[in-house]
Amino acid sequence: MPIFTLKLPDIGEGIAQAELTGWCIAIGDLVVEEAPLAEVMTDKATVEIPSPVSGRVIWLGGEVGETLAIGCDLIRIAVEDDANQTVLKQDPSPVAMQLSDQKASANAAFTSERRTRLTGLRRVIADRMQATTNIPQFTIVEDVDVTSLLALREQLNAAHPRKERLTVLPFLIRALSTALADHPQINAHLIEHGTTLIEYPSVHCGIATQTDEGLMVPVLRDVQALEVWQIAKGISRLATACRAGTISRTDLAGSTITVSSLGALGGLSTTPIINAPEVAVVGINRITIRPVWNSQCFAPRQLMNLSCSFDHRVVDGWAAAHFIAQLKSHCEAITREGH
């Protein structure tokens, strides 16, 4: 009986290995040509491997979560239509048997502790967060009066119902790009084990985006040249692509500073983690109504805390405080500066 062996194909220039994030089939399954067999991941981009032949699966070359070398044996398929389950007995692979056993037990109820191996995007996130433990981070929290900003946002949304609906985020990103013009060391990367700082003339803003698989950080480029409508449209495009699983590798690379927002679910204050090799991250917290003294009485205002974390190897406390003061000022002056 002819056996076809599919090797893990080259899925990108310079890629030597990939993580197996999921099987689309199991041992004994019949597959047709072009049917999906497996999913592998590299650099946060998931690639689906199709079958080049039709037949019955008799061997699988790894477990979900394993890192496989490009060119290794990935799957074996008996290509004759009359292949049957007896083929399974010819495969002594303990990996294949273990995978088969897992599929007998997939619906079993959990009666004790559950142990899950981190795979796919969750594993990438874990690896990246582990890398941040060497960064001496500190966080400064400042409140911003967004009462006028919110009023302007509502006016613009009402006046332009066919445009992308504005949230607070596009206004803040625009203010951020303005503040960074006076603080180039914050719009930067620290590389080569902390010995080289690269300051960037353009602001490429990473937008922390929650998906069903975990947190992704697509990049909105050259935000210093965009107005709020363009920023809003770009954010929507990136978020939709992330959640649909169609985001490109290009859109996931090259950020110079990251903004993280939990929206209405956010707390009053957070300590966002720097997205290395960047040296700063801006966290947007929940908007609340608080009394503010206006020199005559207390009046209700809509306030939002900004939580900004910095890499202390590059950014001193005074520079961080000065940057946040400017960011606060730009946010509160947006209505006077136009949009």
Content-based structural category: alpha+beta
Mean pLDDT across every amino acid position? 85
Shape, per Cα inertia axes: elongated
Instruction: Note the run of SSEs as H and E.
Output: EEEEEEEEHHEHHEEEEEEHEEEHH
- Rg is 25 Å
Overall strand count: 18
State which percent range the strand residues make up: 25-35%
Span between termini: 70 Å
Largest sheet: 6 strands, mixed
| Order of neighbouring strands in the sheet with most strands | 9-18-17-16-12-15
Report the helical percentage.
25-40%
Low-confidence segments? 82-103, 105-110
Number of helices: 7
What does it look like?
Strand 13 and strand 14 form a beta hairpin. Helices cover 25% and strands 30% of the residues. With 339 residues, it is α+β, with helices and mostly antiparallel strands. Strands 9-18-17-16-12-15 form a six-stranded mixed sheet, with helices on one face. Strands 1-8-6-3 form a four-stranded antiparallel sheet. It is elongated, with a radius of gyration of 25 Å.
SSE blueprint and pairings:
Blueprint: E1 3-7, E2 17-23, E3 30-31, E4 36-42, E5 45-50, E6 55-60, E7 67-69, E8 73-78, H1 94-104, H2 120-131, E9 137-145, H3 147-159, H4 168-180, E10 188-191, E11 196-199, E12 205-207, E13 209-211, E14 214-216, E15 219-220, H5 228-244, E16 257-261, E17 280-293, E18 298-311, H6 317-332, H7 334-337
Parallel strand pairs: 12-16, 16-17
Antiparallel strand pairs: 1-8, 2-4, 2-7, 3-6, 4-5, 6-8, 9-18, 10-11, 12-15, 13-14, 17-18
Helix pairs in contact: 4-5, 4-6
